[in-house]
Every structure is written in C-alpha cells, then in structure tokens.
Amino acid sequence: MPQLTDDDRIALAEAWIEQDPDPETRDELASIVAGVKAGDAAASADLADRFDARLAFGTAGLRGEIAAGPNRMNRVLVAQGAAGLAAYLLERATEAAATSVVVGYDGRRNSEVFARDVAEVIAGAGVRAILLPRMLPTPVLAFAVRHLDTSAGVMVTASHNPPNDNGMKVYLGGADQGTQIVAPADAEIAAHILRVAESVRVPDLPRGSVETAPESVVDAYVSATAAVAATPAAQPWVVYTAMHGVGWETLRRVLDTAGFDAPTLVEAQIEPDARFPTVAFPNPEEPGAMDLSFEAARASGADLIVANDPDADRLAIAIPDASEASGWRRLTGNEVGLLLGWQVAEQVAAAGRDGTLACSIVSSPGLEAVARAHGLDFRATLTGFKWISRAPGLAFGFEEALGYLVNPDTVRDKDGISAAVAFLSLAARLAAEGRTVADHLDDFTARFGCFASAQVSIRVTDLSRIAEVMARLRAAPPSEVGGIRVAAVEDLALGLDGLPPSDVLRIRLEGGARVMVRPSGTEPKLKVYIDAAATEGSVAERRAAASEAVARVEAGMRELVA
C-alpha cells in the first residue's frame, strides 16, 4: 500500500463518513478530520492509525475496538463483512435458494446492532438469514448452525476482550459440521470483503427480510447439553459468575434440566453488562477477575466456583485452597482439561468405543498420557478450536485458555456451558464418594504423573514488539533456559509434525521440559507456554520436581523475552 498523506487520509475519511450509517462514529471521525485540518499532530497520528491499514479478516473472523475507520470495528466493516461472506457462500453454492446463515449475538456494546446489520445485508444478497431470538452464548450459535443445517453461522462477540471491543466470528455448516473457518476459506472470504469495500458503498448494499429463529432452537441446545450430565448422586455447593455476560440464563435452564441445584450467584456479575464494571478485563484468567467469586464462596461456604467468560464459550473452575490468601485457587486450564479428558476417556473406554483426545500444541502433554492409558488416539493441533474440532474421531478436546469441547455431537467448538455441566457431574460423583476435586487432582498425579505448566503473557501497545521478539529468538536461539540446556529449537513456521505453518517456536529442553512461544491470535500479547512433567516418586515429590523445573524455565524465559 502506498504511503498516504494527510490529504489522502482526509479524503478517505470524508468518503467513509458519507457511507457510515452510525451517527456516533460519523461524528467521531468528523472531529478527528477537523483536528487534522487544524494541524493537530495527535489527530493526524490517530487518522493514520485508522486508515493506513484495514482490520484483517482471518480465522477468528473480525475483531477489534469499536470506532470509526477501516482499522476499527464498526457498522461499515460489519456490513462489508456480511456482503463478502454472502458472496463467498453463493459462489460455493450449487443452488442459491438453499444457502442460509444463522446469526447470533451476545451482550457487548453494539452486538445486537451489528448482528441485525449482518443478517439484513446477507438477506439482501439473496441468502436466507435467520437471527437468534435474543442475546445468547456463542455455543448456542455454534449449535444452531448444525441444528438448523445452515450453510454458515455468524456470532457477533469479542468473547473476553476489553469492553470496547467487538467482532464477528464465522462458522461453516455442511461438511464443516459447524466448525470455525480455516484456510483457505478465511482468505477467500477476505478477498470477497475487499472487493465489496472497493466497489460498493454501504448505503447501496441491498437489505432484506430476516427470519427470527424459534425458541425451539434454544430448547434443543438445553436438552442436548443437559444430556452430558450424569444424574447427580450428591450436590456440591457451587458459586457461579457469568462475568457480566450472557451465560446464566442458558446455564440455569441446563442445570435445572440435568437435576442440579441452583448455585449461589455472584449477583454483581450475573446480568449482561457491556461496561464490565467490576473487572479490569472480563476474562477469568486475568488477575482479580474472580475476586468477587472468591468473596461469595467464602461467605457461603461453597465447595466449588464455576465461571463463564462473557459469551460463555470458556469455563473457569476454582477450588478451596488454604495456602492461598483468598482461600481459593483457580485451576489452570490444563488442570481442568486433564480432569475432563480423563473423565471422557473413562466413559469412552467403558463403552468399548474408539475415540480421539485432542488438544492444542500449547496445552498440557498430559492429555496424551491419558489417551495412551485408555487405548485412545491422541492428536495435537495448532491453537484454536477451529483445529481441535476437526480432529478425526474426536471424543474430547481442550486448550489451556479455558476452552473445552466435551460434546462433539452437539457443538463443534469450545463450550463453557456443556463443560460446566460435565465438571459438575465429576464434582457430584466425587462428593458422593466423600472426596474433593483436590483429591482427584492427587489421583491424577499418582496415576499419570505431575504435568506442571506456567504461562508468561506480555501485553503490548506496539504490535511490532512481538514481531521483534519472535525474530530475535529465531535469529539467536537460546542455548539454555533457566540453567537447563536446550536440546532443540523447532520453528513451526516451517510446518512441522504435519501441521500447517504457524508463527510458533518450540524449545525442547533436556529432561523433557518444553517451551512454546507465539503471538496471541486475538489480543495484543506475546504468549509463552511452559510445561514440565515428573513421573517418579510420591505425589508430593512429583509435584515438587515438576514445579521446580517450570519455575526455573519461567524465570529464564522472562529474561529472554523482556
């Protein structure tokens, strides 16, 4: 793209204003343009940031800050995205009349507005458009793609991103079974979007009539998800938070159908609120995000905390822990994934069935040990459920970022509601035996070994910093990390292990520890994943050995990526 001048950007911005249906972003951009014309250097830099690039459409669809301009998330970009998706679907269709899209949305800022734009533009292109009846969790949309047998699905959400972000995530039906898009579909849809952006003004895009999906779609999801649970033989005392998102209404119905008692609610976080007023980031992984849950659990004497992120596709679990200042400890995504994977493996093996346990390459290698012990297949995929969900013969999949797929016949994506029901079934069984989740973690360590993990996550304001760190590690790989010699450095950009090329470095250390380094696919972060295992000695000795190795490697990696 040629270097733009302020005059070029002003012309582009004024053309943008003319086609923007949103008065708020029109006024915002007009104010910036006025600043540029008045010689304001900050306004010039802001305009350049908005117009020198375009928000990329990739395998996560579109996601970004809500604001004016092509490098932000707004109604112009949403309409262009919808028109591009419709063109892609019609190009692939053998019969245009059979092409259909179901659209869902959560409780974030502008989610319903964006969803209606998507549905109306898709309908205007001649594609049947079906809008879910109200704000609902992402897993319900993923379910609806298969349940309604649509060609595609669009979910308007930014999941657990900061409050002013939003996005649109695309799923494909038919042979893709309601999974998220992967290459080459992402690039093909992106090309159609660019053609629309370059040739059609948004006001000139035709809009059509939209159907509203019946409540029976939600009823079917509730019924199918409740079936994941075994009848609870005991009822652990549970605290639940929706993290200001849309999870509670649907989870409440699922729990009631499955026979679970209603949990104690974190009332301040239970209703959808696009401001996310009680948390710095609406992500259960972030420090402080579960503080209100811990407070409610202490007050009620609970046995377990269950948390969803705002669109309820992720699940967090916390258990009592006297060694923590709060009295509670959030389990890592790896710990929850290994316990759920073990439960599924036992169920599959008991039924005499075959199946595959799958996780992303940055998740705990402990799942492979579980699969081998039960005679099941194991598959390590690239990060993201767009890959995990495609594992052949999938029985269970997870990734360390609190994502779990426990019911592949219902939803081919991470699902924080079905995962919550599956984990509550496990907790209920343990309670009936007079045991706790902490006891079960000990059992896992005794049987399979201790698989310790840690993560270094560096949030940046300048994305070039991430590229610089990755380039530096490739150009001068470390010979040791934390005093442990490096056995091998593998660059997955070359497409190792039969995986598609990916911007990931894998550092293997002597003694078996492993480090994975990658840019986040959804946030401005560099992520470092550290894993180490110990299989000798008592449970306590295994934990001590694995934890020591992880601590040494973590300290070493923090120095390397600083």
UniProtKB/TrEMBL annotation:
Cofactors: Mg(2+)
Recorded superkingdom: Bacteria
Domain Alpha-D-phosphohexomutase C-terminal: 459-545
Enzyme Commission number(s): 5.4.2.-
The keyword Phosphoprotein is assigned to this record: yes
Keywords for the protein's UniProt record, in alphabetical order: Isomerase, Magnesium, Metal-binding, Phosphoprotein
Domain Alpha-D-phosphohexomutase alpha/beta/alpha: 55-195, 235-318, 333-446
UniProt xrefs under Pfam families: PGM_PMM_I, PGM_PMM_II, PGM_PMM_III, PGM_PMM_IV
Signal peptide bounds: none
Molecular function in Gene Ontology: isomerase activity
Family: Belongs to the phosphohexose mutase family.
Name of the protein in its database record: Phospho-sugar mutase
